Amino acid sequence: MPVVSRGLLRGALCTLLILSATVARGQGGPPMITDDPGTPGNGHWENNLAITFEHRPNEWSFEAPALDLNYGLGENIQLTLQTSYVVLKRSDHGPVGGVGSTQAAVKWRFLDEERYGFSMSTFPRIIFNALQSSVRRGLADDGTRVQTPVQVSRKVGPVELDGEFGPLFNFSGQSEWLYGVVGGSISRRRLLSWPSCRARRARISPATS
Fold this sequence. Notes:
Helices cover 4% and strands 54% of the residues. With 209 residues, it is mainly beta. It has one domain (5-203). The N and C termini lie far apart (36 Å).
């Protein structure tokens, strides 16, 4: 989800609702913006629905739902499609709703924890607008963006730590570095993500002579 400015708070917000079609291997992904190297496995789906909320001065918004579809192609590759229905309310007008930004991505896990002691993947994605009307109403950012993050994961006893970092290239605005960490405890039946997970952004400044 998205990496638009509206979604950057997800790393610090608690999830209001998450429904998964399968048991996820990791704890990253929506509503967190920090992902993990886990993949669903060959021929398996891992689909998530989430409701997220954000409040800013003079406006609030929520996604209901944020949709995250993942399909395993082999044991180390994941195909992903993410989108959401966004409702935005500003102080100067009534609520408006529509489709937010859409993401298409491919994850490749090239290091496995069983062999190397930690997992590592890359998850390049393209972020675009399905409807230009959503841009005009402030529901999605304008232009096309490309993100090329790397994910690292390590388990220490019952605790799993996931980190993600990489650039977000914006072809119609400011490019940025995005990085974040999420942690959680794992048991056979449940995964509890720490609400203290964090995500940060840093602008990419053009080189000057």
